[in-house]
């Protein structure tokens, strides 16, 4: 179980397709572009945390450019802090944060 303070940085990146995976291996994939993020997962994760429910989030491995099979279990809390460069990049994400 993770307790405060805990930084959750494992839920952002999407599963790469073959072409994206090849570009990532050549350091030519932009992980900071909105297309690199799994906004559906972010929204559902934040909703569950706000509801006080536990979540299992994937761990992204930058060495293999893929999600690990192992997941991290995070438990809901009274306060959820969501921050990062993509915090304002998705309308649904903005609405769930409100």
TrEMBL record:
Write down the species: Aplysia californica (California sea hare)
* PANTHER family found in the cross-reference section: URIDINE KINASE (PTHR10285)
Its taxonomic path starts at: Eukaryota, Metazoa, Spiralia, Lophotrochozoa, Mollusca
Annotated Phosphoribulokinase/uridine kinase domain ranges read 15-90
Indicate the segments annotated as coiled coil, or none if absent. Answer: none
A Pfam family = PRK
This one is known as: Uridine-cytidine kinase-like 1
């Amino acid at each position: 179980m993770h307790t405060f303070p805990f930084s959750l940085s494992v839920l952002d990146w999407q599963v790469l397709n073959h072409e994206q995976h090849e570009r990532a291996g050549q350091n030519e994939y932009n992980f900071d572009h909105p297309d690199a993020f799994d906004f559906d997962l972010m929204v559902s994760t934040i909703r569950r945390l706000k509801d006080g429910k536990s979540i299992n989030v994937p761990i992204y491995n930058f060495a293999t450019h893929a999600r690990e099979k192992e997941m991290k279990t995070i438990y809901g809390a009274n306060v959820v802090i969501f921050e990062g460069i993509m915090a304002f990049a998705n309308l649904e994400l903005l609405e769930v944060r409100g």
